[in-house]
Design a protein that fits this description.
Low-confidence stretches: 1-33, 294-309
Number of helices: 13
Distance between the termini: 88 Å
CATH topology of the largest domain: D-Maltodextrin-Binding Protein, domain 2
Structural class: alpha/beta
Shape: globular
Largest sheet: 6 strands, mixed
Radius of gyration: 25 Å
Number of domains: 2
Order of helices and strands: HHEHEHEHEEEEHHEHEHEEEHHEHH
Oligomer: single chain
Helix content: 25-40%
Number of strands: 13
Mean pLDDT: 85
């Protein structure tokens, strides 16, 4: 007697999916699986930076339908290491750090900050309100304080301005010192411990408004801070992040924007080529003694680099 043929039950596909779901075997929706990190630089104390950008992380989480976690890097070395991790993330960076990481293939541009209607900013070289200095070339023999040496506005851009004015800081300044933060540099100039410093104009403005300092010269406009995504961030998610950022405006998102800065209007879409001006400055005038160059030495110019916009 022959053995009975095996019985095959062909259940409809919807029933199989339902059964798998009941057993906990169904894959979670793509949105539920996504986890995005918002990486932030150590602009000030970690608590202060987190407080400024947590509303943005919450906004992106609502807009994207994915979990967004804000993470503040403890220092520059940590920021560079975390920015290179192979995971979905968006990093908020100054132009100089962005170009270094982008040239290494670690970041893709999304949007840049807009303040007072502008997505560019200027370096302000400032002196005390009663300083005898009136022109940049008069700073020979001065005591100059650098703030954050990684910030283009505080080191790279003033080096370009000095060169254009015929100044060699290492020869012409009586003293030059790096103080680590723009706030430190501004206060030391206000206290007459140094004669001048260079910071971005937004950082200088409160001291100018209070009559403590005045602007000796502004630089040409340079692109603002940028939000850039890691290559591991899926293309569709990058597109939706860019759209969510571009959609922020006052008064609808005033609480999120005010947390970042009272003069912040939102973000505008940006391209990598917008930052070629920084690459040009770095190639022509950058020094090799900044923390960024020590921790992440330039690997060499990329093709087509150096077109100043």
């Amino acid at each position: 007697m022959s053995s009975p043929l095996p019985i095959r039950i062909r259940a409809p596909l919807p029933l199989l999916i339902l059964a798998a779901a009941l057993l906990g075997l169904a894959p979670a929706p793509a949105a539920a699986q996504a986890h995005l990190r918002l990486l932030l630089p150590p602009l000030s104390s970690p608590d202060q930076v987190y407080a400024r950008f947590q509303p943005l992380a919450a906004y992106l989480q609502r807009a994207l339908g994915v979990t967004v976690e804000a993470r503040v890097a403890s220092d520059l070395e940590s920021l560079l290491r975390l920015a290179r991790e192979d995971r979905p993330q968006v990093a908020y960076l100054c132009p100089l750090i962005y170009t270094r990481l982008a040239d290494d293939g670690d970041l893709l541009p999304l949007a840049r900050l807009r303040r007072n209607g502008k997505s560019t900013f200027r370096t302000a070289i400032v002196v005390r309100h009663n300083s005898p200095y009136e022109h940049l070339d008069e700073l020979k023999g001065a005591r100059f304080a650098y703030g954050n040496p990684v910030c283009a506005a505080s080191r790279l851009v003033p080096e370009v301005m000095f060169a254009q004015a015929g100044l060699d800081p290492r020869k012409d300044f009586f003293e030059e010192r790096t103080l680590g933060s723009n706030e430190n540099a501004l206060y030391t100039v206000a206290a007459d411990l140094f004669d001048a410093t260079a910071v971005d104009e937004a950082a200088a403005q409160p001291f100018v408004d209070r009559g403590l300092l005045r602007v000796l010269r502004y630089s040409r406009p340079i692109p603002q801070y940028i939000l850039a995504a890691s290559p591991a961030t899926p293309p569709d998610l990058r597109r939706r992040i860019r759209s969510a950022l571009a959609g922020m405006q006052r008064p609808a998102h005033a609480d999120v924007l005010d947390a970042i800065g009272s003069d912040v209007d939102g973000f505008v879409a940006t391209d990598d080529a917008d930052y070629d001006v920084i690459r040009h400055m770095q190639r022509e005038h950058g020094s090799d003694d900044s923390p960024l160059d020590i921790l992440a030495p330039q690997q060499g110019p990329r093709a087509g680099e150096g077109v100043e916009r």
